[in-house]
Amino acid sequence: MLYGDNSNWFAANAFWVLKLYGHRDVRLLDGGRKKWVMEPRPLTQEIPRPIPAQYSAKDPNPNLRARWEHVLESIERKEVLLVDTRSTSEFSGVLVKSAEETEPAQRGGHIPGAINLSAELIVKRDGAFLALDELHSLFLEHGITPDKEIVTYCRIGERSSIVWFVLKYLLAYPNVRNYDGSWAEWGNMIAMPIQKGLGEGERSPFGL
Question: What number of other Cβ atoms are within 10 A of residue 10's Cβ?
Fold first, then answer.
């Protein structure tokens, strides 16, 4: 069972990592710590003492992860949808980095052709997921359909993990990958194509 703050973004990232390496029984607490506290439910400051055990991970599942090479090749493929789960200001390139970020990119913008669907839209005020019919409608309204291969990304792979989780486990989309390198990798690589704004393409002539 996994849970965390920030609408379970990092918990979902841990979920994705465990699934990537073949762990079978992994669960995400809907609403995370925020909903638990708001209800309110009991908390403790006791430090657990887990029993050591042997654990062997499997080889990474290539169907769950997208690397930059796959993403670059996917830009020209109509059967692949790139879903940028960052805020609109990050997607457009207006915001390159915030004050608290420790993994900034040199360039702002988004991967060409990507659709912007902020991870904040899939949860309610208490951090719990929207109802299934609401989630289904939200993705369809953004043109994100189950007949496509979906690649999610954000800044460092945490917000994209929660959207990946919704698509794969709540809406049962058959082909969803998470690009965990995300903008921290793409925005720092020389000569990678980018777009700025909410639709107009822009690329530095120097590849910077």
Answer: 20
- 0.85 exceeded by the pTM? yes
Query: CATH assignment of 68-186, given 3.10.20.30, 3.20.20.140, 3.40.250.10, 3.20.20.80?
Result: 3.40.250.10
Asked whether the beta carbons of 129 and 29 are under 8 A apart, the reply is no
What does the angle CA 178 – CA 179 – CA 183 come to, to the nearest 5 degrees? 135
In sequence order, the 6+-apart residues with CB closer than 8 A to the CB of 156 are 103, 180, 182, 183, 184
* Residue 154 bears catalytic tag: yes
- Which one-letter DSSP state was computed for residue 141? H
1-20 pLDDT, tens per residue?
Answer: 999 998 999 999 999 999 99
pLDDT band at 99 (very low <50, low <70, confident <90, very high): low
State mean pLDDT over 176-185. Answer: 97
- For 191, the token pair is 């000569």
Listed by start position, the domains of the chain span 6-38, 68-186
* Residue in 114, 150, 154, 162 annotated catalytic: 154
Residues 106 and 187: their CA atoms lie apart, in Å, by: 6
- Cα gap 185→139, rounded to integer Å: 26
Q: Where residue 207 falls among pLDDT bands split at 50, 70, 90?
A: very low
